[in-house]
Amino acid sequence: MDTIKFKNNPKEQEFYNQLKDKVFKELNGRNFYGNADFWKKGIFWSIVSYTAYAFLFSDSINKLVFWFLFLIFQLAGLLIGFSLGHDASHNTAFKSKRANAILHFFSFLTIGIDPLLWGLRHIRSHHLYANVEGSDIDIDKNPFLRLSPVHPWKNKHKYQHIYAPFVYMLALIHSVFMGDWIYLFSKDYDWMRKGISKQELYIRFIIFKILYFSLVIVLPIAFSNFSWQFVIMAYLTTGGIAALLFIIMLVGTHFFIEAAYPESNEGEIEHTWAVHQLMTSCDWNADKKWARFISGGANCHAAHHLFPNVCHTYYKKINPIIEDTTQEFNIVYHNKTLSNMMISHLKHLKEMGKR
Ligand SMILES: [Zn+2]
Questions:
Q1: Which domain holds residue 214?
Q2: Under which main EC class is this enzyme filed (predicted)?
């Protein structure tokens, strides 16, 4: 990974100092972990997901009901990851790191992506250098889509705004069956795994994958009334729909038409860290409770990137401060509705598809 420094700019630094002061004053402190709102939401999605799962084994359901139950299990299972797992990866659910690691492990079981590897790339790459080519793994070269202006253009990209939804449906399955293995074994990601013993990585990985595949494939094949072919078909198709939900809530938060894709100039980026986060993030329906409820605060993306050490259930207090302070300092803050953000994402794909 390239090492990158952020430029020191007194006005931008002053903006960030004032923003932090106002936010920590409003919150009455600096450390904020999971509160009642946080646990209520996480428990709600866990009950929905595992109740649907339990009914998969009922004798009185037909194929169509089985498929819908599998879909609810996968969608709500994804939202367990959004509402509990993401915070746990940032150590903001509990004060104890160990408790966060345990929560992260179990809250990703319904998604299947290795939590330790995901957490490492999320914290060590994406959060530090959002949208910077070579430093943010989330925009690493993708064989099907050109997401950033620094990626090489190919003829097929002309149509990427049309075929992107089909590629996106493969996102979760690709991570479960390919991405995780590459992040675990490839030498290219040695920097990401630094400081974690190989033994720990491998043991946790193996236990996690055994539990995940038992949950989603082995147990339904062994104990439901349906053939293994039908169970696999249900797993793959509902997984594709869950992947679309995942992408819809996240992809536009960094890939939208007005986003910046800064290139480092001799290892330095044009702006301070805080302004960089604002230039590369987009909020959606940040003031809406329903949006925070389903996305685990991922809709308040600027607040999350600026205050990753605060649990997401406090973002509703942070958002108005970001809005005011960015206006006062004339600094960009992107906030759209979910549908406008998706339109902006498709426009971005179309733009990137031009030679
Ligand atoms: Zn995060």
A1: 5-352
A2: oxidoreductase
